[in-house]
Specification:
The protein is 37% helix and 15% strand. It has twelve helices and twelve strands.
Length: 360
Amino acid sequence: MTFKHRPIIDTIPAYKQGKPAPAVAGQRSFKISSNENPYPPLPSVQKAIEDRALDRINRYPDMRGWDVVQRLAKDYGVEPENVVLGCGSTEVITQLVTLLAGPGDEVVYPWRSFEAYPIIVAGAGATSVQIPNRPDGGHDIDAMIAALNDHTRLVIVNNPNNPTASSVRDDEARRLMKAVPSDVTVLFDEAYFQFNNDPSTSVAMDLFREYPNIVVAHTFSKAYGLAGLRIGYGIAQPDVVEGMRKVSLPFGVTQTAQVAALVSLDAKDELMDRVRKIIAERDRVVAALKAQGWDFPEPYANFFWLPLGAKTEEAAARFTAAGLSTRVFEGEGIRISVGEVEANDKVIEVCQSLKSDGIA
């Protein structure tokens, strides 16, 4: 069908969801393609949803999410006016880009990075300025600084970076902030910050207290294991939050998500114990692969990156045959999420076969 529409839409790549676990006869399969938490929701979260949300599905949720907003403000030592909710941190980022950028404006971000960035920027009618990562998968801060100009409306820092799992050091982030004009916003997208145990990492909330032009995006999808409920949040100056709320999806964060988020915050210690277990599994897998002779960026998230270049598709087929769905970036590499212990054992086995057969 031929229909009139915005030409820029034709340039937007469709977002590809991580593939489900492949069906392989005679063996258990695992989905390790979407950086999801392998643990099921806590019993306390499930009970709270049953007791406080199911009987309210016929009613609209509190659009401001006031209970969650107030709780987050208290936990972070900011005012409620500094907090905005969204349908996952992806919607928070979409709010910010929509607020700041349009035709003729530029958004600077590392690449390869989160696949939604170019989609969100193009959807707003703005121009992406993609800065290639360093060979170690990290942000090229000097190149990001060099890309700044009068058209720049937003700079995105993804820490740890998805899909390379590389961490942004505090000194790098500070060098960037000193170079960015005070009227240009810098977004620190920290969807995986709970898994980042790099001692030199940048902590966005520390910088937020020093630089008023920072926005911090966090999510309940990863460490808290609420990916299916879609709730994230941003922390910014009150006028920025007000602007973001104007372009937000009305009633986008459901009552179920809000209830689950509140109970998850109450169970933070229990959930962080799960995070520590995931980090331990990540480190176990990484150590095994390094012993096999693999060379890849040191990961600081609940996933790691195998830069396979032209052999990416051949390697991906091996994972699929073993009952593992991974995130494949054609001609570049594979992102592998840390999953159940059995899934991680399979990853180690497949990587050994790839190494033995000269595919790595």
